[in-house]
Amino acid sequence: MKTFQKTIRLKPYPRGFHLITDLVEKAFPEIMEIQAGILHVFIQHTSAGLTINENADPTVRMDFETFISDLIPENYRKFIHNYEGPDDMPAHIKSSLFGNSVQLPISHGRMNLGTWQGIYLCEFRDYGGSRNLVLTAWGN
């Protein structure tokens, strides 16, 4: 059994849903040493999230942003936590809904995603800044 782990720092992304599959793959070539295993990607932040979804049509990512912003609006008057601005509390809720990690299989040294699947960074803040990802891979 082999185990690899590293933390990478992403550049700041604007609010929205961003494909980071290629970035993860390039930053973590160690997965090529695993024939069958698991890749776990964890984001060390409470106002951004990760998910796996459509990787071909960018309008899917735009629709994600539109829907989640309508579902959890910044002007919700009952929010109390607003120390870091009006987008902070909505970002925390969105992060909890989407989650802070994804797991995917590694097969023959590659992430085994479906044909139309990619890893999204879900940036829920206007100015979230750099984000850290902890990448852990294990397998044979």
From TrEMBL:
InterPro entries: UPF0047_YjbQ-like (IPR001602), YjbQ-like_sf (IPR035917). It holds the Pfam family YjbQ. SUPFAM superfamilies: YjbQ-like. PANTHER family: UNCHARACTERIZED PROTEIN YJBQ-RELATED (PTHR30615), UPF0047 PROTEIN C4A8.02C (PTHR30615:SF8). Belongs to the UPF0047 family. This is Secondary thiamine-phosphate synthase enzyme. It comes from Cecembia calidifontis.
